Amino acid sequence: MKKILLTASFADVSSHLDHFLNESFHDKAVAFIPTASLVEDYRGYVDNDRLAFEQLGLSINELDVSTLTFQSIATILSKSDYLFISGGNTFYLLQELKRTGTDQLISEWIHQGKPYIGSSAGSIVLAPDIAYIQLMDDAKKAPQLDNTQGLNLIDFYPLPHFNNEPFRDIAHQIFANYHSQLNLKPIDNDQFILISDQ
């Protein structure tokens, strides 16, 4: 049983969340993981996503996995109804998820049927491997990452910002390089992918 919403820009499609979840957001909280953005110069998209959740009426449990213990992360997740991972550098995100054991917690979360929402890097990291995104994200920002195997919770490879600047040309180049080898799923900022097998 899985309930996953993958986006390129959550703020641009947030109005669809209530339809996807089909439940009231009253007294609900989202665990909000901005970790992927911490090694990037521009982080405005994280603020936009946070504001989008607030406008939907959700409480936000901020969760930077790079600074917390496994137990602290598990505790915050246990107090949350939804899990969101923001955009940023996918390699750094994967490094920190693996280093802290959060990758295991996310796998358990998704397999329990709890709603997972990803934006850009937060969508890509669920793929079997993230090496394909290296033209878009700088792998050098994750010096402790010893392999690019993703969380492998989906059987395809999200390709965000497909027709959106400043990533349009890079996204199209990634598609040209890998579409014959990988099951790529390009999405624009105003598109999303729903996975629900319940």
Written overview of the protein:
The protein is an alpha/beta fold. The chain has one domain (3-196): 3-Layer(aba) Sandwich (Rossmann fold), CATH 3.40.50. Helix content is 33%, strand content 18%. The protein is built from 8 helices and 8 strands.
Q: How big is the Rg?
A: 15 Å
CATH architecture grouping: 3-Layer(aba) Sandwich
Mean pLDDT: 96
Strand order in the sheet with the most strands: 3-2-4-5-1-8
- What structural class results from the helix and strand content? alpha/beta
The portion of residues forming beta strands comes to 15-25%
Separation, N- and C-terminal Cα atoms: 5 Å
How is the main sheet built?
A: 6 strands, mixed
CATH-defined fold name: Rossmann fold
Shape: globular
CATH homologous superfamily annotation: Class I glutamine amidotransferase (GATase) domain
Q: Helix content range of the residues, please? A: 25-40%
Number of helices: 8
| CATH class designation | Alpha Beta
